[in-house]
Write a structure and sequence with these properties.
This protein is of the alpha/beta class and 212 residues long. It has helices spanning 17-31, 50-67, 77-83, 97-104, 118-126, 151-160, 173-182, 191-194, 200-211, and strands at residues 6-9, 38-43, 70-74, 87-90, 109-113, 131-135, 165-168, 186-189. It has a single domain, classed as Aldolase class I (TIM Barrel). It has 9 helices and 8 strands. It has an 8-stranded parallel β-barrel, surrounded by 6 helices. Helix 1 (17-31) packs parallel to helix 2 (50-67), helix 3 packs parallel to helix 4 and helix 7 crosses helix 9 (200-211). It is globular and about 40 Å long. The two termini are 20 Å apart. Bound molecules: ligand LCLJCK34, ligand 3NM and magnesium ion. Ligand LCLJCK34 binds at residues 7, 42, 44, 74-75, 89, 91, 94, 111, 113, 133, 135, 143, 166, 168, 188.
Length: 212
């Protein structure tokens, strides 16, 4: 899996899968070989049917594999298993790490939402999570986020734990570097790429410039 700083998340809805697949290839290509290279893509289609999620996974995984980008599924360890994904991201109400590990086995990545809580991150780490995610750091229109995190939680986690950490929530090219400097191993991005002025590839170029 690539070692870049970006953790891409799909838009909550994809209306033209062929067009989005091409956009994804362009975005991954813009980041290839740079600090902003996408370490992974999370398929996060909210409200989609299982078949729609699996069809999207079937279209997008080959693009990720070609670029050395991991492919994770949001919420559903069972769909991650069916899709042959590299892992799953679990929120606090999406089931346990133990359940997901039983389904996916070792060698698959299981991430856990920890809001701004070191306690939740410790619980996730003890349960065997492969990464923890803190957020939201900034206002976001992508998810009605009831929780807020401050960069200090990244610095504290970096000092006390070895489990990799992802920062998420309203992150832009102007704010990404500060979160990496505070301790984030990855910055999770959705709208700053997919809704970027000039299009998603231009959005990735802005992160390449900001993180180089
Ligand atoms: C990397 C990452 N961090 C947090 C989330 C949010 O997960 P969750 O709280 O389960 O909310 P939904 O994404 O399911 O709406 C995430 N998806 N990815
Ligand atoms: C999916 C998600 N989870 C969050 C959390 O705080 O746990 S914030 C968020 C939205 C991330 O998208 P954008 O980069 O467009 O803000
Ligand atoms: Mg969830």
């Amino acid at each position: 899996m690539s070692q870049g700083l970006l953790y891409l998340i799909t838009p909550p809805a994809v209306h033209d899968l062929d067009a989005f697949t091409e956009q994804l290839a362009a975005v991954l290509g813009e980041g290839a070989g740079t600090n902003a290279e996408a370490a992974c893509l999370q398929l996060r289609l909210k409200g989609a049917s299982d078949d729609e999620v699996l069809r999207a996974a079937e279209a997008l995984m080959p693009v990720c594999e070609r670029m050395g980008t991991g492919f994770l599924v949001n919420d559903r360890a069972d769909l991650a298993k069916l899709a042959g994904a590299d892992g799953v991201h679990l929120g606090q109400s999406d089931g346990t790490v133990a359940e997901a590990r039983k389904l996916l086995g070792e060698g698959k990545d299981i991430g856990v939402t920890c809001h701004g809580s070191i306690h939740l991150a410790m619980e996730a780490g003890e349960a065997g999570a492969d990464y923890v995610a803190f957020g939201a750091f900034f206002p976001t229109s992508t998810k009605e986020s009831l929780h807020h995190a401050e960069p200090d939680v990244l610095t504290r986690w970096q000092a006390m734990a070895t489990v990799p950490q992802v920062a998420i929530g309203g992150i832009t090219p102007a704010t990404a570097r500060g979160l990496v400097e505070a301790g984030a191993d990855f910055v999770a991005i959705s709208s700053a790429i997919w809704n970027a002025e000039g299009g998603p590839a231009a959005g990735m170029r802005a992160f390449v410039e900001a993180l180089s």
